[in-house]
Amino acid sequence: MKRTTKSIILKTWTGIKSAGRHVWKYLKSKEGRQILIQMFFIAIKYILGL
Known about the structure:
The chain contains 2 helices and no strands.
């Protein structure tokens, strides 16, 4: 039982790490940065309820 949850956590962690690496590579490019800025502003508007 413990072994299965540990393996699931490990798989999830490796998935997050590889996804993070792809996101980081994308953010280094200009297009990625512009999209991130747009998403950031949308998130702020959503949080403020505008």
